Amino acid sequence: MNTHANIAPRLTIAIPAYNRADFLPTLLISIAEQLVSLRPPFDARSVEVCISDNASVDATKAVVEKFSGRIPRLVYHRNNHNIGPDRNYLKAVEISSGDFCWLMGSDDRVEEGALQAVLDATVRWHDTAGFSVNMAGYDIGFLQRRDILDPFTFKSDKTFCGSHEVFANFGAYYGYLSGQVIRRDLWIDAISSGEHLKYLNAYVHVFVIGRMIQAVPKWAFLHQRCVGWRSGNDSFLSGGWYQRMAIDVIGYHDVTVGLFGKKSKTTRVMRDNIARVHAYLSFRGGKQHGQSAANIYMGAKLLTAYYWKSPVFWRKLFPLIVAPGPLCRAIYLSYVRIVRPTLRAHAERKMASER
């Protein structure tokens, strides 16, 4: 399709990176291998790969240089200093030129056949603000599928209209960078006011997508598992368990209130969604893995402050808060020894059936 350098690519894969030299090759290989088999009207020049290196101190630049011959449209930018994750997300899109941008975590990978599927979807859903793609969970080495909570209940491609319906279904998923494909022109419009700079809380992209949806209230879902997620590699955990949970609790709250207002129906739905999944799993993990009493107290205080008005708090979070730590750990050990092997076998059978 795009056979001349002066023609904008249809799709940019926008990758913010920081000290990911050990993981980035897996992602770039997964892209390069699929570029050579794209079907018309697309070809390898229909796809641009843009990497914004946030002043890494490892071999990230050298890794990228090795792929210059395998990825025709490869753009590398290095920040002079670490500008933080949010500004680097923004920079990755800023240096892009595609009609659509697939936001991509530097330690994830593009699943087999996904590049063609996403390109085709940009044509099918050209009039949307963007679309989310389904994901597949793996262990940290991409050796085994992991038993993760499926983020969606719908089992086929689907289009959603109306900002409330879109955000109620996808708002909690927007935090997962690699699951989102956005229209770049709408993104540029959404950041033009600079309002997004008030939300540099690890979820600035969620705020920007929210503004895009309010401008063009139409979003789609591609059911095909297009991105592989590498578990056990969350860079935000470097600040500690409590801080990681606070990023979700406070970040999602602030973004949603900024978009829809404190008393809106959408804000209430998002509050319940985050409490039900993100907050619950994080706090449960803390108790199961023996976080200190001080950390558990701070976590319980945080959840109570943000969610006590939610029915989810009293149904799921409060019982977990008051449950003894040894009981939580005993349940977790039973899960690891009995339930997890069964779920893992099920995930592997499911993966085999999807091939």
Description:
The protein is α/β, with parallel strands linked by helices and 355 residues long. It has twelve helices and nine strands. Strands 1, 2, 3, 4, 5, 6, 7, 8 and 9 form a nine-stranded mixed sheet that branches.
Secondary structure topology:
Blueprint: E1 11-17, H1 24-35, E2 47-53, H2 60-65, E3 74-78, H3 85-94, E4 100-103, E5 109-110, H4 114-124, E6 130-138, E7 158-161, H5 163-170, E8 180-183, H6 184-191, H7 204-215, E9 218-230, H8 241-260, H9 265-288, H10 293-307, H11 311-322, H12 325-354
Parallel strand pairs: 1-2, 1-4, 2-3, 6-9
Antiparallel strand pairs: 4-8, 5-9, 6-8, 7-9
Keywords:
2 domains, alpha/beta, 9 strands, 9-stranded mixed sheet, single chain, 15% strand, Spore Coat Polysaccharide Biosynthesis Protein SpsA, Chain A, 355 residues, 12 helices
Helix segment count? 12
Q: Distance N terminus to C terminus?
A: 28 Å
CATH-defined architecture of the largest domain: Alpha-Beta Complex
What is the top-level CATH class of the largest domain?
Alpha Beta
Low-confidence stretches: none
Largest sheet: 9 strands, mixed
Helix and strand content put the structural class at alpha/beta
